[in-house]
Design a protein that fits this description.
CATH architecture of one domain: Beta Barrel
CATH superfamily of one domain: Nucleic acid-binding proteins
CATH topology of one domain: OB fold (Dihydrolipoamide Acetyltransferase, E2P)
Shape: globular
Helix content: 10-25%
Oligomer: single chain
Largest sheet: 5 strands, mixed, barrel
Length: 223
């Protein structure tokens, strides 16, 4: 059985996104997202809260969208996987850092009054995801129901669905009985072999069964 490395985070940004450009033309946008957990202390009855910070990297087009619309305080949905990297600190000691590599992002909201936010446009509630080629798709957040309208190229599988729907009636016309001309006594279409060398043009004028001549009957009784 294959392993699963999947992370889902819903939280708020603790600072504005940071963008880094690569020499090959790519880019990465890094954000820090906070998630909070609350519970009641059994001994004191006090309400307690614990906050976890998550380092998230968004590459190429997905990162460009995050850098354009997300700001400190923005709420975001992130779906991705854990990645661990190794580096050497200033003292020459090797250290490891774990971060989330985002594969899908949805902007849920923004801090009030944040400049460049998404409160007054149609990007809130829209999901973006990376493609293997480095691009992105825009898909609906509700995976079990209808998809959100795609302003960047349509639904991902819309063309395949149309092709399948168009192919079904053709198969029904070739093999189904509903459109079979022989079931209704109509003239057979040209090019169809009906069992003899000539196409049937009028089934009602078929010759009757041939009756043998009297002379051809054998008079000998077999017993």
């Amino acid at each position: 059985m294959r392993g699963v490395n999947k992370v889902i985070i819903v939280g708020n940004l603790g600072s504005d996104p940071e963008v880094k450009q690569f020499s090959n033309g790519g880019s990465v946008t890094r954000i820090a997202v906070a998630t909070s957990e609350q519970w009641n202390d059994k001994q004191t009855g006090e309400r307690r809260e614990q906050t976890e910070w998550h380092r998230i990297s968004l590459f190429n087009k997905l990162g460009e969208i995050a850098a354009q619309y997300l700001r400190k305080g923005s709420q975001v949905y992130i779906e991705g996987s854990l990645r661990t990297s190794k580096y050497t600190d200033q003292n020459g000691v090797e250290r490891y850092a774990t971060e989330i590599r985002a594969e899908q992002m949805q902007m849920l909201g923004t801090a009030g009054g944040a400049q460049g936010g998404i409160a007054n446009n149609n990007t809130a509630g829209t999901t973006y995801q990376n493609q293997p080629q480095g691009g992105y798709n825009q898909v609906g957040y509700n995976q079990g129901g209808n998809q959100a309208p795609n302003h960047f190229g349509g639904y991902p599988n819309q063309n395949n669905a149309q092709t399948n729907n168009q192919a079904a009636p053709q198969a029904g016309q070739n093999a189904g009985f509903g459109n079979n001309p022989f079931m209704n006594g109509n003239q057979a279409p040209q090019g169809v072999n009906t069992g003899n060398n000539q196409p049937a043009q009028n089934p009602q004028q078929n010759p009757a069964m041939a009756i043998p001549k009297p002379g051809a009957v054998d008079d000998d009784i077999p017993f």
